[in-house]
């Protein structure tokens, strides 16, 4: 699965007929897996290839299922949600925690945040900015 760019103008939200894909007030693009009907319009709408369809039940492949982490079922689309269940309890997304020396996470609107300072001090790029989706994931080059 590819990292979702959590666009400021996400096409996946516009094309979802059931509103299973939505954008939180803090800018994180989310999925309500109970509302997803598996139509895959969001897969077609995402220009970054950040969505994947569960054609089979993923649970048999998970070594330890915990109630703290939601597991999806067969027939729904899934995407990166910045580990929102971890954010809710004050933890960093798992990818950031696992690769702390190469990734940063934070509030782009806070001028004092670590992420904002990194963006100001380095040359960065965003994927496909010409599409007008305004991706909120930046890559330091």
* CATH fold annotation: Alpha-Beta Plaits
Count of separate DSSP helical elements: 5
Strand count, sense and closure of the main sheet?
2 strands, antiparallel
Q: For the terminal residues, how far apart are their CA atoms?
A: 22 Å
CATH architecture: 2-Layer Sandwich
> Which class in CATH terms?
Alpha Beta
Order of strands side by side in the largest beta sheet? Answer: 1-2
Domain tally = 1
Query: What's the count of strands?
Result: 6
**Topology as H/E string?**
HEEHEEHHHEE
Low-pLDDT runs: none
Helix content: 10-25%
Which structural category fits the helices and strands?
Answer: alpha+beta
Mean pLDDT: 90
Rg, nearest Å: 16 Å
**Large-scale geometry:** globular
The percent range for strand residues is 5-15%
Ordered list of secondary-structure elements with their pairings:
Elements: H1 11-15, E1 21-23, E2 29-31, H2 41-45, E3 52-53, E4 77-78, H3 84-87, H4 94-98, H5 114-121, E5 124-125, E6 139-140
Antiparallel strand pairs: 1-2, 3-4, 5-6
Task: Describe the overall structure.
With 141 residues, the chain is of the alpha+beta class. The protein has a single domain (11-140), classed as 2-Layer Sandwich (Alpha-Beta Plaits), CATH 3.30.70. The chain is 19% helix and 10% strand. The chain is built from five helices and six strands. The strands form three sheets. It has a two-stranded antiparallel ribbon. Strands 3-4 form a two-stranded antiparallel sheet. Strands 5-6 form a two-stranded antiparallel sheet. A hairpin with a 5-residue loop joins strand 1 and strand 2. It starts with 10 loop residues before the first helix and ends with a strand. The relative contact order is 0.20. The model has no long low-confidence stretch (mean pLDDT 90).
